[in-house]
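To close the chapter, one final illustration. This time we ask the reader to focus less on the individual chains and more on the assembly as a whole: which components sit near each other, and how the overall shape emerges from the parts.
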Amino acid sequence: MAELGERYSKINISPVIEKRKEDIMASIIELKNVSKVYGDDILTKVLSDISLSIEEGSFSSVIGQSGSGKSTLLNLMGTLDKPTTGDIMINNTSIKNLSKDELAVLRNQTIGFVFQFHYLLPEFSVLENVLIPYEIMCTDRKKDVLEDPKQRAVSLLKLVGLEKVIDKNAARISGGQQQRAAIARALMNHPKIILADEPTGNLDSYSTEMIYDLFRELNNTLHTTFLIITHDQKVAEKTDRIIEIKDGRINLDITK
Amino acid sequence: MKLGFRIAIRFLTASLGQTLLIMIGISVGVSVQIFIGSLIQGLQQSLLASTIGSSPHITIVSDTSKKEFSEYIDLADEIRSTDERIKTVTYVLDEPAFLLTEDTSQSLLIRGLPLSETEDIYHFQEALTEGRLPASSAEILLGSPLKEQYGLSVGDMITLLSTDNTALSCTITGFFDLKVASLNESWGIMSLSAAQQYFAFPDQVTGIELQLYDPYVFEADLVADKLQELPDFTSWQVQNWKVQNESLLSGLQGQSISSIMIQVFVMISVVLGIASVLAISVLQKSKQIGILKAMGMKNRLTSFIFLAQGAILGLGGALLGIMLGLALSFSFTKFAVTSDGSPVVALSIQPWFIILSGAIAVTASLAASLLPAIRSSRLNPIDIIRNS
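The assembled structure is written out below.
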Protein backbone atom coordinates (compact mmCIF):
# COMPACT_ATOMS: atom_id res chain seq x y z
CA MET A 1 0.00 0.00 0.00
CA ALA A 2 2.79 2.39 0.92
CA GLU A 3 4.64 1.59 -2.23
CA LEU A 4 1.51 2.05 -4.24
CA GLY A 5 0.98 5.34 -2.55
CA GLU A 6 4.48 6.44 -3.36
CA ARG A 7 3.89 5.53 -6.98
CA TYR A 8 0.68 7.48 -7.11
CA SER A 9 2.13 10.48 -5.40
CA LYS A 10 5.07 10.43 -7.73
CA ILE A 11 2.66 10.56 -10.60
CA ASN A 12 0.69 13.29 -8.93
CA ILE A 13 3.58 15.57 -8.32
CA SER A 14 4.86 15.24 -11.82
CA PRO A 15 5.58 18.82 -12.86
CA VAL A 16 3.56 18.58 -16.04
CA ILE A 17 0.34 17.62 -14.31
CA GLU A 18 0.84 20.15 -11.51
CA LYS A 19 1.38 22.91 -14.02
CA ARG A 20 -1.73 21.94 -15.90
CA LYS A 21 -3.81 21.85 -12.74
CA GLU A 22 -2.56 25.24 -11.67
CA ASP A 23 -3.70 26.57 -15.00
CA ILE A 24 -7.14 25.09 -14.62
CA MET A 25 -7.82 25.57 -10.92
CA ALA A 26 -6.54 27.93 -8.27
CA SER A 27 -5.87 26.45 -4.86
CA ILE A 28 -8.46 27.42 -2.24
CA ILE A 29 -6.80 25.72 0.73
CA GLU A 30 -3.07 25.38 1.01
CA LEU A 31 -1.13 23.81 3.86
CA LYS A 32 2.56 24.60 4.09
CA ASN A 33 4.63 22.30 6.31
CA VAL A 34 1.88 22.10 8.88
CA SER A 35 2.48 20.26 12.16
CA LYS A 36 0.14 19.98 15.12
CA VAL A 37 1.22 19.01 18.60
CA TYR A 38 -1.23 18.56 21.47
CA GLY A 39 -0.58 18.58 25.21
CA ASP A 40 1.50 20.65 27.58
CA ASP A 41 3.49 18.07 29.54
CA ILE A 42 3.13 14.98 27.41
CA LEU A 43 3.41 16.10 23.80
CA THR A 44 1.49 14.21 21.14
CA LYS A 45 2.37 15.01 17.57
CA VAL A 46 -0.86 14.52 15.64
CA LEU A 47 0.24 15.93 12.29
CA SER A 48 3.80 16.31 11.05
CA ASP A 49 5.00 18.45 8.23
CA ILE A 50 1.96 18.28 5.98
CA SER A 51 1.96 20.21 2.74
CA LEU A 52 -1.21 19.98 0.75
CA SER A 53 -3.17 21.98 -1.75
CA ILE A 54 -6.93 21.72 -2.35
CA GLU A 55 -8.14 23.21 -5.57
CA GLU A 56 -11.21 25.33 -5.93
CA GLY A 57 -14.20 23.36 -7.12
CA SER A 58 -12.58 20.00 -6.38
CA PHE A 59 -14.31 17.01 -4.80
CA SER A 60 -11.84 15.26 -2.50
CA SER A 61 -11.80 12.91 0.43
CA VAL A 62 -9.43 12.35 3.33
CA ILE A 63 -9.26 8.81 4.65
CA GLY A 64 -7.39 7.22 7.49
CA GLN A 65 -7.74 5.10 10.60
CA SER A 66 -9.28 6.68 13.64
CA GLY A 67 -6.57 8.59 15.44
CA SER A 68 -4.60 9.10 12.25
CA GLY A 69 -5.08 12.86 12.45
CA LYS A 70 -7.63 13.34 9.70
CA SER A 71 -10.13 15.20 11.89
CA THR A 72 -7.35 17.43 13.20
CA LEU A 73 -6.47 18.18 9.58
CA LEU A 74 -10.06 19.18 8.88
CA ASN A 75 -10.25 21.36 12.00
CA LEU A 76 -7.07 23.14 10.92
CA MET A 77 -8.41 23.71 7.41
CA GLY A 78 -11.66 24.95 8.94
CA THR A 79 -9.70 27.45 11.11
CA LEU A 80 -11.23 25.94 14.22
CA ASP A 81 -7.67 25.21 15.34
CA LYS A 82 -4.28 26.71 14.61
CA PRO A 83 -1.22 24.72 13.50
CA THR A 84 1.72 24.45 15.91
CA THR A 85 4.11 25.15 13.06
CA GLY A 86 3.62 25.88 9.39
CA ASP A 87 0.96 28.01 7.74
CA ILE A 88 -2.43 27.57 6.15
CA MET A 89 -3.77 29.73 3.34
CA ILE A 90 -7.53 29.88 2.93
CA ASN A 91 -8.67 31.61 -0.23
CA ASN A 92 -5.13 33.06 -0.53
CA THR A 93 -5.22 34.49 2.99
CA SER A 94 -2.78 33.28 5.61
CA ILE A 95 -4.63 32.44 8.82
CA LYS A 96 -1.48 32.75 10.89
CA ASN A 97 -1.94 36.38 11.82
CA LEU A 98 -5.72 36.56 11.87
CA SER A 99 -7.45 37.36 15.16
CA LYS A 100 -10.19 35.15 16.57
CA ASP A 101 -12.84 37.53 15.27
CA GLU A 102 -11.28 37.66 11.81
CA LEU A 103 -11.18 33.86 11.75
CA ALA A 104 -14.85 33.77 12.74
CA VAL A 105 -15.74 36.05 9.82
CA LEU A 106 -13.63 33.92 7.46
CA ARG A 107 -15.37 30.75 8.63
CA ASN A 108 -18.78 32.33 8.38
CA GLN A 109 -18.35 33.55 4.83
CA THR A 110 -16.00 31.01 3.24
CA ILE A 111 -16.48 27.66 4.92
CA GLY A 112 -19.49 25.47 5.53
CA PHE A 113 -19.23 22.62 8.01
CA VAL A 114 -21.06 19.34 7.96
CA PHE A 115 -20.34 17.17 10.98
CA GLN A 116 -21.13 13.57 11.80
CA PHE A 117 -23.40 14.81 14.52
CA HIS A 118 -25.25 17.45 12.51
CA TYR A 119 -25.58 19.83 15.50
CA LEU A 120 -28.75 21.54 14.44
CA LEU A 121 -29.99 23.85 17.18
CA PRO A 122 -32.92 21.92 18.68
CA GLU A 123 -34.50 25.16 19.91
CA PHE A 124 -35.14 26.35 16.34
CA SER A 125 -37.12 25.17 13.33
CA VAL A 126 -35.43 23.63 10.28
CA LEU A 127 -35.77 26.89 8.35
CA GLU A 128 -34.44 29.00 11.24
CA ASN A 129 -31.43 26.69 11.54
CA VAL A 130 -30.61 27.19 7.87
CA LEU A 131 -30.89 30.97 8.30
CA ILE A 132 -28.54 31.20 11.30
CA PRO A 133 -25.21 31.45 9.36
CA TYR A 134 -26.76 34.28 7.36
CA GLU A 135 -27.91 36.05 10.51
CA ILE A 136 -24.44 35.68 12.01
CA MET A 137 -23.07 37.29 8.84
CA CYS A 138 -25.56 40.16 9.25
CA THR A 139 -24.20 40.93 12.73
CA ASP A 140 -20.94 41.93 11.03
CA ARG A 141 -21.84 43.73 7.89
CA LYS A 142 -24.97 45.67 7.32
CA LYS A 143 -24.71 45.89 3.57
CA ASP A 144 -24.60 43.16 0.96
CA VAL A 145 -27.46 41.43 2.70
CA LEU A 146 -29.73 39.28 0.62
CA GLU A 147 -32.97 40.75 -0.50
CA ASP A 148 -34.89 37.71 0.57
CA PRO A 149 -32.78 35.41 2.72
CA LYS A 150 -35.79 33.32 3.60
CA GLN A 151 -36.35 32.60 -0.06
CA ARG A 152 -32.77 31.39 -0.40
CA ALA A 153 -33.08 29.18 2.68
CA VAL A 154 -36.30 27.68 1.35
CA SER A 155 -34.75 27.00 -2.05
CA LEU A 156 -31.75 25.33 -0.37
CA LEU A 157 -34.10 23.18 1.67
CA LYS A 158 -35.89 22.25 -1.55
CA LEU A 159 -32.54 21.38 -3.06
CA VAL A 160 -31.83 18.92 -0.25
CA GLY A 161 -35.40 17.61 -0.42
CA LEU A 162 -36.72 19.00 2.83
CA GLU A 163 -39.47 21.27 1.58
CA LYS A 164 -42.05 19.36 3.59
CA VAL A 165 -40.41 19.82 7.00
CA ILE A 166 -39.35 23.47 6.72
CA ASP A 167 -41.29 24.65 9.76
CA LYS A 168 -40.81 21.56 11.88
CA ASN A 169 -38.65 21.71 14.95
CA ALA A 170 -35.12 20.60 14.03
CA ALA A 171 -35.13 17.91 16.72
CA ARG A 172 -38.30 16.33 15.36
CA ILE A 173 -37.07 15.14 11.99
CA SER A 174 -35.17 11.95 11.14
CA GLY A 175 -31.36 11.63 11.29
CA GLY A 176 -31.03 11.69 7.51
CA GLN A 177 -33.25 14.74 7.27
CA GLN A 178 -31.27 16.49 10.01
CA GLN A 179 -28.05 15.89 8.11
CA ARG A 180 -29.58 17.25 4.92
CA ALA A 181 -30.78 20.32 6.86
CA ALA A 182 -27.20 20.74 8.14
CA ILE A 183 -25.97 20.65 4.53
CA ALA A 184 -28.50 23.32 3.54
CA ARG A 185 -27.28 25.37 6.51
CA ALA A 186 -23.65 24.92 5.42
CA LEU A 187 -24.57 26.24 1.97
CA MET A 188 -26.51 29.27 3.20
CA ASN A 189 -23.73 31.87 2.86
CA HIS A 190 -22.49 30.65 -0.55
CA PRO A 191 -19.32 29.18 0.96
CA LYS A 192 -16.44 28.35 -1.34
CA ILE A 193 -15.57 25.31 0.75
CA ILE A 194 -17.63 22.59 2.42
CA LEU A 195 -15.73 20.61 5.02
CA ALA A 196 -17.54 17.43 5.97
CA ASP A 197 -16.36 15.25 8.83
CA GLU A 198 -17.85 11.75 8.57
CA PRO A 199 -21.09 13.28 7.29
CA THR A 200 -22.77 9.90 6.86
CA GLY A 201 -21.18 8.10 9.79
CA ASN A 202 -24.50 7.98 11.55
CA LEU A 203 -26.77 7.22 8.63
CA ASP A 204 -28.10 4.09 6.91
CA SER A 205 -26.85 3.12 3.47
CA TYR A 206 -29.82 4.65 1.65
CA SER A 207 -29.36 8.05 3.31
CA THR A 208 -25.59 7.79 2.79
CA GLU A 209 -26.09 7.30 -0.92
CA MET A 210 -28.48 10.23 -1.08
CA ILE A 211 -26.11 12.60 0.76
CA TYR A 212 -23.19 11.78 -1.57
CA ASP A 213 -25.31 12.19 -4.63
CA LEU A 214 -26.36 15.55 -3.22
CA PHE A 215 -22.73 16.54 -2.57
CA ARG A 216 -21.78 15.63 -6.07
CA GLU A 217 -24.69 17.54 -7.50
CA LEU A 218 -23.83 20.64 -5.51
CA ASN A 219 -20.22 20.32 -6.60
CA ASN A 220 -21.31 20.17 -10.21
CA THR A 221 -23.93 22.92 -10.09
CA LEU A 222 -22.54 25.42 -7.56
CA HIS A 223 -18.82 24.52 -8.01
CA THR A 224 -18.43 24.38 -4.26
CA THR A 225 -15.19 22.77 -3.11
CA PHE A 226 -15.88 19.61 -1.10
CA LEU A 227 -13.47 17.97 1.30
CA ILE A 228 -14.97 14.91 2.93
CA ILE A 229 -13.41 13.02 5.79
CA THR A 230 -14.38 9.40 5.96
CA HIS A 231 -13.08 6.07 7.12
CA ASP A 232 -15.19 4.31 4.52
CA GLN A 233 -13.18 3.24 1.48
CA LYS A 234 -16.33 2.92 -0.64
CA VAL A 235 -17.35 6.49 0.07
CA ALA A 236 -13.85 7.74 -0.70
CA GLU A 237 -13.84 5.99 -4.03
CA LYS A 238 -16.69 8.18 -5.20
CA THR A 239 -14.55 11.31 -4.87
CA ASP A 240 -12.09 12.64 -7.43
CA ARG A 241 -9.13 12.73 -5.11
CA ILE A 242 -8.27 10.54 -2.14
CA ILE A 243 -5.79 11.69 0.47
CA GLU A 244 -4.81 9.07 3.02
CA ILE A 245 -3.44 10.17 6.36
CA LYS A 246 -1.43 7.72 8.40
CA ASP A 247 0.31 8.52 11.66
CA GLY A 248 -0.01 12.21 11.01
CA ARG A 249 1.52 12.17 7.54
CA ILE A 250 0.15 11.99 4.02
CA ASN A 251 0.51 8.37 3.10
CA LEU A 252 -1.28 8.46 -0.20
CA ASP A 253 -2.62 11.14 -2.54
CA ILE A 254 -4.50 9.81 -5.55
CA THR A 255 -6.24 11.95 -8.13
CA LYS A 256 -8.49 10.19 -10.59
CA MET B 1 -27.50 41.80 19.32
CA LYS B 2 -30.93 40.98 17.91
CA LEU B 3 -29.76 37.48 17.04
CA GLY B 4 -28.23 37.10 20.49
CA PHE B 5 -31.51 38.10 22.10
CA ARG B 6 -33.49 35.74 19.89
CA ILE B 7 -31.23 32.82 20.74
CA ALA B 8 -31.37 33.76 24.44
CA ILE B 9 -35.17 33.77 24.37
CA ARG B 10 -35.23 30.41 22.56
CA PHE B 11 -32.81 28.90 25.06
CA LEU B 12 -35.02 30.12 27.90
CA THR B 13 -38.31 28.99 26.38
CA ALA B 14 -36.85 25.62 25.37
CA SER B 15 -36.45 24.77 29.06
CA LEU B 16 -39.51 26.63 30.22
CA GLY B 17 -39.84 24.83 33.56
CA GLN B 18 -36.31 25.73 34.55
CA THR B 19 -36.81 29.32 33.39
CA LEU B 20 -40.05 29.75 35.32
CA LEU B 21 -38.51 28.23 38.42
CA ILE B 22 -35.62 30.68 38.46
CA MET B 23 -37.93 33.60 37.65
CA ILE B 24 -40.12 32.64 40.58
CA GLY B 25 -36.96 32.45 42.68
CA ILE B 26 -36.00 35.99 41.71
CA SER B 27 -39.54 37.28 42.16
CA VAL B 28 -39.78 35.81 45.67
CA GLY B 29 -36.54 37.61 46.49
CA VAL B 30 -37.79 40.90 45.04
CA SER B 31 -41.19 40.63 46.71
CA VAL B 32 -39.61 39.90 50.11
CA GLN B 33 -37.35 42.88 49.59
CA ILE B 34 -40.25 45.16 48.70
CA PHE B 35 -42.39 43.90 51.56
CA ILE B 36 -39.70 44.06 54.23
CA GLY B 37 -38.44 47.40 52.96
CA SER B 38 -41.94 48.91 52.93
CA LEU B 39 -42.69 47.42 56.34
CA ILE B 40 -39.52 48.81 57.94
CA GLN B 41 -40.00 52.18 56.27
CA GLY B 42 -43.62 52.26 57.40
CA LEU B 43 -42.59 51.35 60.93
CA GLN B 44 -39.95 54.04 60.98
CA GLN B 45 -42.28 56.64 59.58
CA SER B 46 -44.98 55.91 62.13
CA LEU B 47 -42.37 55.94 64.89
CA LEU B 48 -41.03 59.23 63.62
CA ALA B 49 -44.51 60.64 63.17
CA SER B 50 -45.45 59.82 66.72
CA THR B 51 -42.16 61.21 68.02
CA ILE B 52 -41.62 64.33 65.96
CA GLY B 53 -44.78 64.56 63.91
CA SER B 54 -46.46 66.59 66.63
CA SER B 55 -43.48 68.41 67.98
CA PRO B 56 -41.07 71.00 66.67
CA HIS B 57 -37.95 69.82 64.83
CA ILE B 58 -35.89 72.70 66.18
CA THR B 59 -36.49 74.69 69.36
CA ILE B 60 -34.74 77.93 70.24
CA VAL B 61 -34.67 78.90 73.90
CA SER B 62 -32.92 81.54 75.90
CA ASP B 63 -29.41 80.65 77.04
CA THR B 64 -29.56 83.08 79.95
CA SER B 65 -31.15 82.69 83.39
CA LYS B 66 -34.23 84.58 82.24
CA LYS B 67 -36.34 82.24 80.15
CA GLU B 68 -38.64 84.85 78.66
CA PHE B 69 -37.61 87.14 75.84
CA SER B 70 -39.33 89.71 73.65
CA GLU B 71 -37.24 89.90 70.44
CA TYR B 72 -39.09 86.94 69.01
CA ILE B 73 -40.67 88.67 66.02
CA ASP B 74 -37.31 89.89 64.68
CA LEU B 75 -35.66 86.54 65.39
CA ALA B 76 -38.44 84.67 63.61
CA ASP B 77 -38.03 86.88 60.53
CA GLU B 78 -34.29 86.28 60.52
CA ILE B 79 -34.75 82.53 60.87
CA ARG B 80 -37.23 82.42 58.01
CA SER B 81 -34.77 84.10 55.65
CA THR B 82 -31.82 81.95 56.73
CA ASP B 83 -32.66 78.56 55.30
CA GLU B 84 -35.04 77.24 52.66
CA ARG B 85 -35.53 73.96 54.47
CA ILE B 86 -37.56 75.69 57.18
CA LYS B 87 -41.29 75.31 56.74
CA THR B 88 -42.83 76.92 59.82
CA VAL B 89 -41.52 79.34 62.44
CA THR B 90 -43.69 79.96 65.47
CA TYR B 91 -43.29 80.84 69.15
CA VAL B 92 -44.53 79.65 72.45
CA LEU B 93 -44.82 80.84 76.01
CA ASP B 94 -44.39 77.82 78.28
CA GLU B 95 -45.16 78.34 81.96
CA PRO B 96 -45.97 75.86 84.74
CA ALA B 97 -49.31 76.13 86.58
CA PHE B 98 -51.58 74.04 88.75
CA LEU B 99 -55.04 72.85 87.85
CA LEU B 100 -57.03 73.10 91.05
CA THR B 101 -59.75 70.55 91.58
CA GLU B 102 -61.94 69.83 94.61
CA ASP B 103 -59.51 67.76 96.61
CA THR B 104 -56.22 67.89 94.75
CA SER B 105 -54.15 69.83 92.31
CA GLN B 106 -52.58 68.71 89.04
CA SER B 107 -49.43 70.29 87.66
CA LEU B 108 -49.74 71.45 84.09
CA LEU B 109 -47.48 73.00 81.49
CA ILE B 110 -49.48 75.87 80.09
CA ARG B 111 -48.48 76.40 76.49
CA GLY B 112 -49.45 79.72 75.00
CA LEU B 113 -49.43 79.31 71.23
CA PRO B 114 -50.48 81.37 68.20
CA LEU B 115 -52.84 78.50 67.38
CA SER B 116 -53.44 79.20 63.72
CA GLU B 117 -49.69 79.25 63.02
CA THR B 118 -48.75 76.18 65.07
CA GLU B 119 -51.27 73.96 63.38
CA ASP B 120 -48.44 72.78 61.06
CA ILE B 121 -46.53 71.46 64.06
CA TYR B 122 -49.07 70.20 66.56
CA HIS B 123 -52.16 69.49 64.46
CA PHE B 124 -54.46 70.29 67.37
CA GLN B 125 -57.41 70.53 65.05
CA GLU B 126 -56.90 66.87 64.12
CA ALA B 127 -56.08 65.91 67.68
CA LEU B 128 -59.35 67.30 69.04
CA THR B 129 -61.52 64.55 70.48
CA GLU B 130 -64.31 67.02 71.19
CA GLY B 131 -64.99 70.74 71.31
CA ARG B 132 -62.95 73.46 69.59
CA LEU B 133 -59.65 75.30 69.90
CA PRO B 134 -59.41 78.09 72.54
CA ALA B 135 -59.78 81.56 71.15
CA SER B 136 -60.35 84.24 73.73
CA SER B 137 -58.32 85.03 76.81
CA ALA B 138 -60.00 82.78 79.34
CA GLU B 139 -60.20 79.56 77.38
CA ILE B 140 -58.15 76.37 77.62
CA LEU B 141 -57.77 73.04 75.81
CA LEU B 142 -56.90 70.00 77.95
CA GLY B 143 -55.72 66.48 77.28
CA SER B 144 -58.40 63.82 77.16
CA PRO B 145 -57.07 61.77 80.15
CA LEU B 146 -57.85 64.71 82.44
CA LYS B 147 -61.46 64.62 81.35
CA GLU B 148 -62.03 61.20 82.86
CA GLN B 149 -59.65 61.64 85.76
CA TYR B 150 -61.43 64.74 87.05
CA GLY B 151 -64.87 64.29 85.51
CA LEU B 152 -64.52 67.37 83.35
CA SER B 153 -66.52 68.27 80.27
CA VAL B 154 -66.54 70.94 77.54
CA GLY B 155 -67.82 74.28 78.87
CA ASP B 156 -66.75 73.59 82.49
CA MET B 157 -64.98 76.35 84.36
CA ILE B 158 -61.65 75.42 85.95
CA THR B 159 -59.19 77.34 88.08
CA LEU B 160 -55.49 77.61 87.32
CA LEU B 161 -52.88 78.73 89.81
CA SER B 162 -49.56 80.09 88.57
CA THR B 163 -46.29 79.63 90.48
CA ASP B 164 -46.62 83.14 91.88
CA ASN B 165 -50.09 82.27 93.17
CA THR B 166 -52.15 84.17 90.60
CA ALA B 167 -55.44 82.42 89.98
CA LEU B 168 -57.29 82.35 86.68
CA SER B 169 -60.69 80.94 85.92
CA CYS B 170 -61.08 79.70 82.41
CA THR B 171 -63.48 77.67 80.30
CA ILE B 172 -62.62 74.30 78.78
CA THR B 173 -63.22 74.56 75.02
CA GLY B 174 -62.29 71.00 74.19
CA PHE B 175 -60.03 67.98 74.73
CA PHE B 176 -57.12 66.70 72.62
CA ASP B 177 -55.34 63.40 72.11
CA LEU B 178 -51.80 63.76 70.74
CA LYS B 179 -51.23 59.96 71.07
CA VAL B 180 -48.47 60.59 73.60
CA ALA B 181 -49.68 59.95 77.16
CA SER B 182 -47.19 62.26 78.88
CA LEU B 183 -48.27 65.22 76.74
CA ASN B 184 -51.97 64.42 77.07
CA GLU B 185 -51.65 64.36 80.86
CA SER B 186 -49.55 67.48 81.32
CA TRP B 187 -50.33 70.03 78.63
CA GLY B 188 -52.87 72.83 78.81
CA ILE B 189 -53.20 74.80 75.59
CA MET B 190 -54.09 78.51 75.53
CA SER B 191 -53.79 81.21 72.93
CA LEU B 192 -50.47 83.04 73.11
CA SER B 193 -52.05 86.36 74.00
CA ALA B 194 -54.07 84.78 76.81
CA ALA B 195 -51.00 83.12 78.28
CA GLN B 196 -48.93 86.33 78.00
CA GLN B 197 -51.67 88.21 79.81
CA TYR B 198 -52.23 85.59 82.54
CA PHE B 199 -48.56 85.02 83.37
CA ALA B 200 -47.86 88.75 83.02
CA PHE B 201 -45.23 88.45 80.33
CA PRO B 202 -46.68 90.87 77.81
CA ASP B 203 -45.18 90.42 74.36
CA GLN B 204 -42.73 87.80 75.55
CA VAL B 205 -42.19 84.13 74.74
CA THR B 206 -39.99 81.32 76.10
CA GLY B 207 -39.20 79.62 72.84
CA ILE B 208 -39.22 79.75 69.07
CA GLU B 209 -40.28 76.52 67.39
CA LEU B 210 -39.41 75.41 63.87
CA GLN B 211 -40.76 72.77 61.57
CA LEU B 212 -38.74 71.65 58.53
CA TYR B 213 -40.06 70.46 55.21
CA ASP B 214 -40.48 66.66 55.12
CA PRO B 215 -37.42 65.61 53.12
CA TYR B 216 -35.15 67.62 55.42
CA VAL B 217 -36.35 66.28 58.77
CA PHE B 218 -33.07 64.40 59.21
CA GLU B 219 -31.09 67.54 58.49
CA ALA B 220 -32.45 69.24 61.62
CA ASP B 221 -28.99 69.15 63.22
CA LEU B 222 -27.43 70.87 60.22
CA VAL B 223 -30.08 73.59 60.14
CA ALA B 224 -29.74 74.01 63.93
CA ASP B 225 -25.96 74.38 63.63
CA LYS B 226 -26.38 76.94 60.90
CA LEU B 227 -28.76 79.00 63.05
CA GLN B 228 -26.54 78.72 66.10
CA GLU B 229 -23.68 80.21 64.12
CA LEU B 230 -25.64 83.35 63.20
CA PRO B 231 -24.20 86.41 64.98
CA ASP B 232 -27.52 87.29 66.66
CA PHE B 233 -27.89 83.87 68.24
CA THR B 234 -25.12 83.94 70.82
CA SER B 235 -27.49 84.23 73.76
CA TRP B 236 -29.87 81.60 72.47
CA GLN B 237 -29.63 77.86 72.52
CA VAL B 238 -30.71 76.03 69.34
CA GLN B 239 -31.88 72.48 70.08
CA ASN B 240 -32.89 69.90 67.49
CA TRP B 241 -34.99 66.75 67.71
CA LYS B 242 -32.08 64.48 66.81
CA VAL B 243 -30.16 65.42 69.94
CA GLN B 244 -33.30 65.13 72.04
CA ASN B 245 -34.15 61.68 70.64
CA GLU B 246 -30.78 60.01 70.39
CA SER B 247 -32.00 56.58 71.50
CA LEU B 248 -34.82 56.67 68.95
CA LEU B 249 -32.34 57.54 66.23
CA SER B 250 -29.99 54.70 67.10
CA GLY B 251 -33.02 52.40 67.17
CA LEU B 252 -34.06 53.53 63.71
CA GLN B 253 -30.52 53.11 62.48
CA GLY B 254 -30.36 49.56 63.84
CA GLN B 255 -33.64 48.80 62.15
CA SER B 256 -32.38 50.19 58.85
CA ILE B 257 -29.18 48.16 59.04
CA SER B 258 -31.03 44.93 59.82
CA SER B 259 -33.44 45.67 56.97
CA ILE B 260 -30.52 46.23 54.58
CA MET B 261 -28.86 43.02 55.84
CA ILE B 262 -32.01 41.01 55.12
CA GLN B 263 -32.26 42.56 51.67
CA VAL B 264 -28.59 41.93 50.90
CA PHE B 265 -28.85 38.26 51.86
CA VAL B 266 -32.05 37.82 49.87
CA MET B 267 -30.25 39.29 46.87
CA ILE B 268 -27.18 37.09 47.40
CA SER B 269 -29.40 34.02 47.30
CA VAL B 270 -31.04 35.32 44.13
CA VAL B 271 -27.62 35.89 42.52
CA LEU B 272 -26.40 32.42 43.51
CA GLY B 273 -29.60 30.90 42.11
CA ILE B 274 -29.27 32.61 38.74
CA ALA B 275 -25.53 31.99 38.53
CA SER B 276 -25.94 28.27 39.17
CA VAL B 277 -28.80 27.90 36.71
CA LEU B 278 -26.94 29.78 33.99
CA ALA B 279 -23.73 27.86 34.72
CA ILE B 280 -25.64 24.63 34.15
CA SER B 281 -27.21 26.18 31.06
CA VAL B 282 -23.73 26.84 29.57
CA LEU B 283 -23.00 23.11 29.94
CA GLN B 284 -26.42 22.16 28.56
CA LYS B 285 -26.03 24.45 25.59
CA SER B 286 -22.33 23.87 24.94
CA LYS B 287 -23.08 21.92 21.75
CA GLN B 288 -25.13 24.81 20.41
CA ILE B 289 -22.49 27.35 21.41
CA GLY B 290 -19.79 25.22 19.78
CA ILE B 291 -21.62 24.94 16.48
CA LEU B 292 -22.54 28.64 16.50
CA LYS B 293 -18.86 29.44 16.91
CA ALA B 294 -17.91 27.01 14.15
CA MET B 295 -20.39 28.84 11.93
CA GLY B 296 -18.58 32.07 12.64
CA MET B 297 -20.30 33.52 15.69
CA LYS B 298 -17.86 35.69 17.60
CA ASN B 299 -17.07 35.12 21.26
CA ARG B 300 -18.66 38.46 22.14
CA LEU B 301 -22.01 37.39 20.79
CA THR B 302 -22.01 34.01 22.52
CA SER B 303 -21.27 35.85 25.78
CA PHE B 304 -24.08 38.25 25.01
CA ILE B 305 -26.50 35.30 24.72
CA PHE B 306 -25.89 34.50 28.39
CA LEU B 307 -25.94 38.13 29.50
CA ALA B 308 -29.25 38.52 27.67
CA GLN B 309 -30.58 35.43 29.45
CA GLY B 310 -29.54 36.97 32.76
CA ALA B 311 -31.22 40.25 31.84
CA ILE B 312 -34.43 38.54 30.72
CA LEU B 313 -34.55 36.39 33.86
CA GLY B 314 -33.84 39.46 36.00
CA LEU B 315 -36.43 41.65 34.30
CA GLY B 316 -39.10 38.96 34.30
CA GLY B 317 -38.33 38.06 37.92
CA ALA B 318 -38.32 41.72 38.95
CA LEU B 319 -41.69 42.46 37.33
CA LEU B 320 -43.23 39.32 38.78
CA GLY B 321 -41.63 40.14 42.14
CA ILE B 322 -42.98 43.70 42.14
CA MET B 323 -46.49 42.39 41.50
CA LEU B 324 -46.08 39.74 44.18
CA GLY B 325 -44.58 42.25 46.63
CA LEU B 326 -47.43 44.71 46.10
CA ALA B 327 -49.98 41.92 46.47
CA LEU B 328 -48.26 40.79 49.67
CA SER B 329 -48.19 44.35 51.02
CA PHE B 330 -51.80 44.95 50.04
CA SER B 331 -53.00 41.78 51.74
CA PHE B 332 -50.93 42.66 54.81
CA THR B 333 -52.65 46.04 55.15
CA LYS B 334 -56.01 44.39 54.51
CA PHE B 335 -55.75 41.37 56.79
CA ALA B 336 -53.22 42.27 59.49
CA VAL B 337 -55.42 44.93 61.06
CA THR B 338 -56.13 46.19 64.55
CA SER B 339 -59.61 46.08 66.13
CA ASP B 340 -60.56 49.42 64.55
CA GLY B 341 -59.69 48.17 61.04
CA SER B 342 -56.49 50.15 60.56
CA PRO B 343 -53.38 48.16 59.60
CA VAL B 344 -51.08 46.98 62.40
CA VAL B 345 -48.24 48.77 60.65
CA ALA B 346 -49.01 51.29 57.93
CA LEU B 347 -46.67 50.21 55.10
CA SER B 348 -44.77 52.89 53.26
CA ILE B 349 -44.83 51.82 49.62
CA GLN B 350 -42.54 54.18 47.76
CA PRO B 351 -42.30 54.04 43.93
CA TRP B 352 -38.57 54.80 44.04
CA PHE B 353 -38.00 51.89 46.41
CA ILE B 354 -39.93 49.51 44.16
CA ILE B 355 -37.97 50.69 41.12
CA LEU B 356 -34.73 50.38 43.10
CA SER B 357 -35.59 46.80 44.18
CA GLY B 358 -36.34 45.88 40.57
CA ALA B 359 -33.16 47.55 39.34
CA ILE B 360 -31.08 45.74 41.96
CA ALA B 361 -32.60 42.41 40.86
CA VAL B 362 -31.81 43.11 37.19
CA THR B 363 -28.27 44.25 38.02
CA ALA B 364 -27.75 41.21 40.24
CA SER B 365 -29.03 38.94 37.46
CA LEU B 366 -26.66 40.55 34.98
CA ALA B 367 -23.78 40.18 37.42
CA ALA B 368 -24.72 36.55 37.97
CA SER B 369 -24.68 35.89 34.24
CA LEU B 370 -21.21 37.39 33.86
CA LEU B 371 -19.38 34.20 34.80
CA PRO B 372 -21.44 31.94 32.51
CA ALA B 373 -20.93 34.54 29.75
CA ILE B 374 -17.16 34.40 30.23
CA ARG B 375 -17.27 30.61 30.28
CA SER B 376 -19.22 30.52 27.04
CA SER B 377 -16.74 32.86 25.37
CA ARG B 378 -13.91 30.53 26.36
CA LEU B 379 -15.67 27.47 25.01
CA ASN B 380 -13.64 25.97 22.18
CA PRO B 381 -15.77 24.57 19.35
CA ILE B 382 -13.22 21.82 18.70
CA ASP B 383 -13.71 20.41 22.20
CA ILE B 384 -17.43 20.14 21.54
CA ILE B 385 -17.03 18.61 18.08
CA ARG B 386 -14.32 16.20 19.21
CA ASN B 387 -16.10 15.06 22.38
CA SER B 388 -19.21 14.07 20.55
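The longest strand of chain A covers residues 27-38. The radius of gyration of chain A is 18 Å. With these observations in hand, you are ready for the problems at the end of the chapter.
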